[in-house]
Amino acid sequence: MSPLLGHPIPAFSLQDDLGATVTAKDFKGQWTVLYAYPKDSTPGCTTEACDFRDNLARVQSLGAQVYGISRDSLKSHTNFIAKQSLTFRLLSDPETTLLKALGAFGKKVMYGKEVEGIIRSTFLIDPKGVIRHVWPKVSVKGHVADVVEKLTSLKRQ
Q: Which long-range contacts (CB under 8 A, 24 or more apart) does 88-93 make?
């Protein structure tokens, strides 16, 4: 169980792909899906982003918004959004401030080698800004369906 469960999302101030400042206050008032991913335009990250894009109407029908977050630059995010026709915002965290606070940055094994980087994770945040569910070390296939299912379940409570 994640130590973040039941706690407010850490305070942050980051820019999205449009250059707008996004803070924890922007997550209040509606459910938020925040997913951390390693790198724009890589195969797994593209698959995950397109799955969120293709299911965005379902997520929004449950009263939730979606944000992706990585270390990539605003220019990289803008290009990724344009290339994949993404319809949600991407946050840039080049200093990994929020990523580290969420436990989504650290040591991981890639191709048999231990490296430091973004750990693909997803956080479901309620309208009060409280983290209600965490998916650490996400496997891309079927993940968005799991998010929709959990969001549906939590909204019934």
A: 88/52, 88/53, 88/56, 89/16, 89/17, 89/18, 89/22, 90/16, 90/17, 90/40, 91/14, 91/15, 91/16, 91/22, 91/67, 92/14, 92/15, 92/16, 92/17, 93/12, 93/14, 93/69
